[in-house]
Amino acid sequence: MSKLELSYFGYVCAPYLHTHESVELKESWMNSKNIEKLYFVTGTFSSESKPYFSDSTNHYLLAKFKDSEIISKDLTEHNQDKTSFVFNIKDDLFQREVQGETNFVSVYYLEYGEDAEDLEEVANLLLKRDKIEKAGLGNMKTYCTTPSKFTFPYSENVVVIEVASEKSHQSVKKYCEQTRRDVNRKGLTMTNLMSLSLLDQLK
User: Fold this and answer.
1) For the segment 35-72, what is each residue's pLDDT rounded down to a tens digit?
2) CATH number at residue 78
3) Is residue 3 part of a domain?
4) Is residue 149 part of a domain?
5) Domain membership flag for residue 1
6) Greater confidence, 58 or 111?
7) Strand partners for 89
């Protein structure tokens, strides 16, 4: 019997390389009922995560999806030589209305399999930051035609936050960095994986 795959909602970040695969993927996501929102973004990887994803690029398509199974099929069909990232959200930490448009998505990983109490602590610290409109906890899957040299060891403990602000991406990035430091001061090791600046909403 095949193992039953659970389906999740979440985010997918696929390299936009102006290749046939990229363009086809963009077209299919523009028309897909599974994709709620689609953005053109620039991605910045932290120095800690770069060694694992040395093939990273600058420009990505970022989509919010409803069903991870459909996304797996999309990325298997349109696999590229740069890594695509899927963040399946298992626990919605919170969601709320904040002022301004979403203009930044930051992805972190927790270095230890934190217990429920620690995760509650992380959620409470993120809640105190008034520009964060959404935070979720989940896992990460990657797709690439060339396998990475190193296996990323923290893919089961990924935190994704959406930030809404009228300020520049640079300023929001600093705001997220401060947030990360607040969490680490509490003795929880949260490290930045990638920062995504939303440039253009395509859907």
Assistant:
1) 999 999 999 999 999 999 988 899 999 999 999 999 99
2) 3.30.70.260
3) no
4) yes
5) no
6) 58
7) 9, 138
What's the chain's average pLDDT? 92
Determine the Cα angle at 38 with ends 37 and 43, to 5°: 125
- Give me the amino acid identity at 14: A
Name the strand (E) or helix (H) holding 74: helix 68-77
pLDDT at 4 over 60: no
- Round to whole Å and give the CA distance between 140 and 65: 14
Domain count, the chain: 1
User: Chain centroid to CA 175: how far?
Assistant: 17
- Cβ contact 125:179 at 8 Å: yes
> 3-state DSSP call for residue 172?
helix
**Rounded to 5°, angle at Cα 110 from 189 and 35:** 145
Q: Where are the beta strands (DSSP E) in 144-202?
A: 158-164, 190-201
Q: Alpha-carbon distance 185 to 190, whole Å?
A: 10
Task: Give CA–CA dist 32/60, Å, rounded.
Answer: 18
In percent, the amount of the chain with pLDDT more than 70 equals: 97
Q: Which tokens belong to 151? A: 């296996």
Range of the domain at 31: 9-201
User: What is the DSSP code string of 100-143?
Assistant: S-EEEEEEEEESS---HHHHHHHHHHHHTSTTEEEEEEEEEEEE
All residues at 6 or more sequence positions from 87 whose CB lies less than 8 Å from its CB, including other chains: 10, 11, 12, 13, 107, 136, 138, 139, 140, 158, 160
